[in-house]
Amino acid sequence: MLDRYRPGPVLMLTALSGWVGGTVAYAAELTVAVLDRSYEPVPQVAVYAVPETTPAKMQTPHDAVIDQHDHAFVPHVLVVQIGTAVQFPNTDRVSHHVYSFSAAKRFELPLYRGDVHPPMIFDEPGVVTLGCNIHDGMLGFILVVETPHFALTDERGEVHFDDLPSGTYSLNVWTPRLRGSSLPLPRTVKLEPGGNSRARFAFEAKMFPPHDQREGSLSWRDYR
Amino acid sequence: MARLPIRACLVAGLAVGLICPLLAADRHEWLLEFELGYASPASELGPWTEGQLGKLRFGTEAKLGASRILFDYQNRLRPTLWANITLDYVDDASSGIDITEAFIEWRPVPNSELVQHWRFGALYPKFSLENGERGWSSPFTTSFSAINSWLGEEIRPLGAEWNLARRVGGRGSPQALGAFAGVFYGNDPAGTLLFWRGFALHDRQTRLSDRLERPPTPIFGADGVSDYRSATLKPFAETDHRPGYYAGLDWRYATRALMRIGVYDNNADPASFSDGQWGWRTKFQHAAAQFSLPAGVGLVLQWLDGETYWFIRTTTEGTLTPLSSLVKDEFEARFALLTKLFRNRHRLSLRYDRFDMSRNPDLNIDSGHAWTLAYRFDTAQRIAWSLEWLSIASSRDLWTTFYGLPSSARERQLRMQMNLRLGTRR
To answer: Which of B35-49, B288-302, B308-322, B380-394 bottoms out in mean pLDDT, i.e. has the lowest?
Structure first.
């Protein structure tokens, strides 16, 4: 799963090719913290850095997977680089019927169990909302971004990029727990070669509670 | 409660053995559930299932046996078109195997935030917040509340229902609004049993072709009641060819709160009569809510308020005597249920019911309250055990005049049950 940023040989090559091309691009570190309006850290927020100076050097995206397990999409939020192939296995005993009517990707995977559908390529940037036509409570999101530099915040509400090519970036955050209009505006950060920068986003709007399909003591199924 | 019907079990087992391989495909979902148990009722009024005036399902003697065998089957004809059928085996006055619900469900894949689905057939409207399990069972108690016991007895429209839902306030918003509306045929005698017997608390759902025995009609002579005329009731019959309707709205906040309001009107002609069944105009308003409280406790509330009316007439060899007078009963019932699930396997529930029926408007037809305490233990995915204590106190003015019975009664029942579930459905 590509839910965390993984620096690897490809990124090193990107840095090297920048040097070969005449523009020296040394690696820089960047830590981003995301806080809610009471300054508590928020986990599971997508953070992605889009280079402003030169187009992002796209890496060959890894395949990604969204499982349907225990009547939920796992992970609930998946961030992928544009062009990524995503698989949708169903490991529940019951069938699911996955669909999206989002502009970034409209599709439908009719009733199935197991891993029967070939992976689907997400080639438009934006948010893809996933639903199940049988189980109305199932909800999942794929955020398709035009950069290989992305991650989800951890339990401390932080993301750490330790190998970004230096340069100017537009830094963005996204979570389904805020309305689109309440999301903070992108912020420009300039990363110096060998530098160690920090950025912080504090949400001003009240967040929706985390998506939770656990039934607890009551039954929340669609009543018949 | 009947003796365990060994032959029926064998036939059912054989049938399942034969059709299992056929049912393994993805498009079939099925559940076969056996409800076996022991009931120890204490009532002077006798079971309502035998046309008596009690509020309990079973007779006055302790009994061991199968209270229900349920077969619930869904065939996904197309990914968005499903056929659903629920068959019930019970063994009381109206016995054998019969259909409880049968409908076609169409769920077009949404192309916007609006999610809609349609249901066509004989079905329960979405009023109850208690009967969310397969076969319209309750996960909380064995015996349903007074409201839902009555819905299970007399409300089963045959019609078309439209459901609409929409998440409000953004993609990840926990809030959703919903609406539903149905038009239906049949269900014209709905209210008859309530009128003659009052409310009851049990889990005996009426199947589509059941003929229920209702308390006998007293025939008045010069010195009071001179005779009784017994009668059977088919609550889902059509007597006047006028469609009825129901509709509702709901609001949901994630798995923390759900509120629902609704109306129902069978629009029956209270002067109609067809094939031995009288039309009763019955309409009600309904409100329900459930909340997740702190410490993992769940609260369920329902309230029902309505009226039923009928022109008193008699038939002599199939000919109606002229209309004499209109009788109108007003009814109201409500309950609150607290429930807690421990370690996902043990459930403790406590419910308090109140019900009230009156006429013109000072005559008390049936009023009272009930306490239900239930414990349920899911030992495995396929087996559950439950224990329930039910106590009902009720009073009515007319019973002494009509039936020579005391004007108030206390009924109690202890029930133990084992549920055994087979199949692919949850």
So the answer is: B308-322
For residue B341, the chain A residues in CB contact (below 8 A) are 216-217
Among B115, B140, B171, the strongest candidate for a mutation testing the A interface, having the largest count of A CBs within 10 A, is: B171
The answer to whether B79 contacts chain A (CB < 8 Å) is: yes
Q: Which chain B residues are within 8 Å of A216, Cβ to Cβ?
A: 255, 292, 296, 298, 341
d(CA B286, CA B307) in angstroms, rounded, equals 12
* pLDDT tens string A108-160: 999 888 988 999 999 999 999 999 998 888 999 999 999 999 999 999 999 99
- Calpha distance A67→B340 (Å, rounded): 30
Are the beta carbons of B255 and A95 separated by less than 8 Å? no
Does A127 touch chain B if contact means CB atoms closer than 8 Å?
yes
Closest chain B residue to A71, measured at CA: B426
Whether domain A57-146 has CATH 3.40.50.970: the reply is no
- Asked if the B6-423 domain carries CATH number 3.40.630.30, the reply is no
A224·B340 Cβ contact <8 A: no
Quote the CATH superfamily of domain A1-10+26-54+149-203.
Answer: Immunoglobulins (2.60.40.10)
Q: Assess whether pLDDT exceeds 50 at residue B108.
A: yes
Q: Could you tell me which residues come within 8 angstroms of residue B47 by beta carbon, excluding any fewer than 6 positions away?
A: B41, B54, B56, B57, B58, B59, B60, B92
pLDDT digits (tens, 9 = 90+) for B10-23: 556 656 655 655 55
